[in-house]
Amino acid sequence: MLLANGCSSTPVAEAPGTRQFEASDVAASMVGKPYRYGGNTPQGFDCSGLVYFSFKRAGLNVPRSTQSQRDKSRKVPATRLARGDLLFFNQEGKHVSHVGIYLGDNRFVHAPSNGKRVRMDSLVDRYWQKHLVDARRF
C-alpha cells in the first residue's frame, strides 16, 4: 500500500516493519568485514551483497543487484528516512552505482570499494550529500 505525500499525489512507501530494522542491525554487525566484488557473505561483501545478505538474514527476500534493489523498492522522502531504508548514490559518474542501509541519526552502513571494509558513514559528510540520488524502502 502506498501513502500520499502530503497534498501531492507522489506515492511513498509505508512505514518500515520490524524486519527492515532487523536488516539494519545485521548490516551494522558486519562492520569491519572485507569488501569483495560480487560478495554476499561475511567473508566479503560488495554494496548490494551487504543489502541482500542483511535483508535475507532478517527474513526478507530482496534482489541481488543495486539497480534491481532500487527498481523493486519504493521512494521515501529524505524527511521520512527510517532505519533500514536503502540509500542510493552515484559514484564515478555512474547513476545509482552504490547502495547503503540507513541506521538513523544520519548514519548508514555500506561496503565502500575494493581494498576497504564495511563501515559506517554520515549523510552529513559533503561527499555523501553530493552523491545521494535516492532513498527507498521495501
Structure description:
The chain has 138 residues and is α+β, with helices and mostly antiparallel strands. It contains 4 helices and 10 strands. It has helices at 18-29, 47-57, 66-71, 126-131, and strands at residues 3-4, 11-12, 40-41, 44-45, 74-75, 86-91, 94-104, 107-110, 119-122, 132-137. A 6-stranded antiparallel sheet has the order 5-10-6-7-8-9. A two-stranded antiparallel ribbon has the order 1-2. Strand 3 (40-41) and strand 4 form a beta hairpin. Helix 1 packs across helix 2 (47-57). The longest helix has 12 residues, at 18-29. It is globular, with a radius of gyration of 14 Å.
Short description:
This protein is an alpha+beta fold and 138 residues long.
Q: Key features?
A:
138 residues, alpha+beta, six-stranded antiparallel sheet, two-stranded antiparallel ribbon
- Label the overall shape: globular
Write down the Rg: 14 Å
Helix content: 25-40%
Spell the H/E element sequence.
EEHEEHHEEEEEHE
Structural class, please?
alpha+beta
Q: How would you write the strand order of the largest sheet?
A: 5-10-6-7-8-9
Q: Secondary-structure map with pairings?
A:
Elements: E1 3-4, E2 11-12, H1 18-29, E3 40-41, E4 44-45, H2 47-57, H3 66-71, E5 74-75, E6 86-91, E7 94-104, E8 107-110, E9 119-122, H4 126-131, E10 132-137
Antiparallel strand pairs: 1-2, 3-4, 5-10, 6-7, 6-10, 7-8, 8-9
